[in-house]
Design brief:
The protein is mostly beta strands. It is about 10% helix and about 45% strand.
């Protein structure tokens, strides 16, 4: 009983092994053409005819690829066949394909692994399709147009494509320049050497796909060449350009002139500062910025000129020692370096001795007889804008005649100035108003306000009081009041 069970077990096992061996056996193909995928007369003549067959039977090819389990390869196959090169080859006796499409009774069929067992090598077209880093090698027998996948292999890694970019290509001194290899493909990295016009290396940067950018700053003007090399020190021929360069802009050179250096009596008068003589070796100057500082280094005024001529006229209202500095900018934004040619020191002085003319109505003694007076003289600044000395002389004409007489008037006054206001006093002289009176010295006081001031001339309204000096002339008969206008120029 036990022997019978063992016998049947071995019989079944043998049948299974026989069946597996039968199905695993490779199909051997001895002739071609009976089950043609694309029936032709004779054989397919050239690759253009083959491309036409692929296009005509596209739907059948899709069905066959799906049946073979390679449906995802259909679209790449169809797309690449449009531009593929079909090379002439042979299917050697004993060589196999993984599967092949054919047609039986008009229907698309697929046979698995098949071996050519004919008497001689078979003429075929060979064509490759690439997908997902794999190369699929197809053969197509010329007599029938059957499509067979011969084998699959890994595609070699694509060659590196190096791309080096520099931004900006033109920069100013010490401005950051970005070196970028992020446009490269399949590149492990590069070393970029920066060479000056003499060919001397002034900088070097290592770039990798993980860190594809780096910055450099160059402190000398001129043209630079950026030469890349691979990490193993071999030169790299760039794919996008034979030469990558950067240019460092040459900064402009400023030159400053003034209309005066010892600017004597120039308070209230314009002084010209001219930077038109400034130059730029590799561009043009588009802006000049002027700055004036006083003797303590405090900024007094600034001015920007963006149109030519690069000229500024400045009026100083206060005497002193000043320094004017100019900075020029070129069309690339470079700034002129500081130098003696960009800076001028000068002294502005105020005119101290001026002419004076004053006139107005005057009232004399108790009855206050009206006169009209006019005086001329000098005005001298003892301390600019603070203390002044006035010396004037002239006459006063009475409105009525006898017994009133022409009066000679003279003053020597010191005034204190506070802004437009002034007040002061001194001595004066006035001749007799009538024959019965006396001439003599007066104590004179005045107070006034400037109503016109352009720093080279001043117009003031003032009130004047005159009182006799000494006992020989009484206050009642000899005091006077005047309201006048004083012009200093």
């Amino acid at each position: 009983m036990k022997n019978k069970k063992l016998f049947f077990f071995l019989l079944i096992l043998g049948l299974i092994a026989l069946t597996v061996n039968t199905y695993a056996e490779v199909t051997k193909l001895k002739s071609i053409g009976q089950y043609a995928f694309a029936p032709v007369k004779g054989k397919i003549s050239d690759q253009e005819a083959m491309k036409s067959i692929v296009d005509r039977y596209a739907a059948d090819i899709k069905l066959g690829f799906d049946m073979a389990g390679y449906g995802d390869l259909y679209l790449p196959f169809l797309d690449q066949m449009k531009t593929a090169t079909f090379s002439d080859s042979t299917w050697a006796v004993g060589d196999r394909v993984m599967w092949m499409l054919f047609r039986n009774q008009g229907k698309v069929k697929v046979t698995k692994e098949i071996e050519w067992a004919g008497k001689a090598p078979l003429e075929v077209f060979a064509v490759d399709v690439t997908k997902d880093d794999k190369i699929y090698h197809f053969i197509i027998p010329k007599p029938c147009g059957n499509i067979g996948l011969k084998n699959i292999e890994d595609a070699p890694p694509p060659p590196p494509v190096y791309n080096l970019a520099v931004t900006p290509e033109k920069a100013n001194l010490n401005e950051p320049i970005t070196i970028d290899m992020s446009g490269s493909k399949n590149a492990k990295g590069m070393v970029v050497d920066v060479l000056n016009a003499k060919g001397e290396k002034v900088a070097s940067k290592t770039l990798t796909p993980e860190s594809p950018k780096a910055q450099i700053k160059l402190d000398q003007p001129g043209e630079y060449v950026l030469k890349p090399r691979s990490l193993d020190q071999q030169d790299i021929a760039l794919a996008n350009t034979a030469k990558v360069s950067a240019y460092i802009n040459v900064p402009p050179i400023c030159k400053l002139q003034t209309s005066c250096l010892s600017c004597k009596d120039y308070v209230g008068r314009p002084i010209a500062f001219d930077a038109s003589g400034s130059t730029d070796p590799d561009g043009e100057i588009v802006k000049a910025v002027f700055e004036i500082t006083d003797a303590e280094g405090h900024v007094v005024d600034t001015f920007t000129k963006t149109e030519k001529p690069l000229l500024w006229e400045k009026t100083f209202l206060k005497a002193g020692v000043y320094t004017v500095t100019v900075t020029v900018f070129d069309n690339a934004g470079a700034v002129s370096p500081a130098s003696d040619a960009c800076r001028v020191s000068f002294e502005v002085t105020e005119k101290k001795l001026l002419w004076l003319l004053e006139a107005g109505p005057l009232m004399a003694r108790g009855t206050y007889q009206f006169y009209g007076f006019i005086r001329g003289g000098i005005f001298y600044w003892l301390s600019p804008d603070r203390f002044s000395f006035v010396a004037s002389a002239g006459g006063a004409v009475p409105v009525q005649g006898e017994p009133w007489k022409f009066i000679f008037l003279a003053n020597a006054l010191v005034n204190v100035h506070t802004g437009p206001m002034f007040i002061g006093g001194g001595l004066g002289y006035s001749s007799k108003e009538q024959n019965t009176r006396k001439s003599g010295l007066d104590v004179v006081g005045n107070i006034g306000i400037d109503v016109l001031n352009n720093w080279t001339s001043t117009g003031s309204i003032f009130f004047e009081f005159r009182s006799p000096l000494g006992s020989s002339r009484s206050f009642a008969k000899h005091h006077k009041f005047a309201l006048g206008f004083r012009m200093v120029f």
